[in-house]
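Extended Data, record Non-haem dioxygenase N-terminal domain-containing protein
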Amino acid sequence: MSPHLIELSASTLVLYPTSQSEESKKENGVLALESNFPQMKGEMPKEFFWPFGDLIKATEEELKEPLVDIGIMENGDEKAIANAAELVRHACLKHGFFQVINHGVNQDPIDAAYHETNTLFKLPMSKKLTAKRKPGALSGYSGAHADHFSSKLPWKETFSFLFHHQGFSNSQIVDYFESVLGQDLQHTG
């Protein structure tokens, strides 16, 4: 199992203004803050401050995500499967995520997915904004989730897209990427 990291150095924080007066100050209606901006707490938009009670105490310790071994399903051991299911339940309740191991998926497509994810988030802001999520939509780029949260904005970028499994087309994701990011990023889909 090789470790995979999403490169965070290219990440950008995006704030979608909420008032007309703020929007008129910007050329395209978006305020972008580079993630490596200097410590500027006094100048930071108030939407990025979270109440102290919502913050998690940071430690120098690396996060150890729960590992779920699904290789056990091959032998049909009901007790081991039940234990794995409980581990998934606990991980979802406590952490919100887990890592699946011994899944039997070829490593090449996994590596390619991480590579394309890094390619996507390293794009210039102007290119990312061509795929900006529309209000009420589920797909697209979002730098600050301003369409989801009005008072507390997360410090992350997301790029979401849907896969329709009923009556699906093999090219639906490729077609989506091409339609929002252009032909040169079609391979990312």
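Summary. Residues 12-54+125-188 form one domain.
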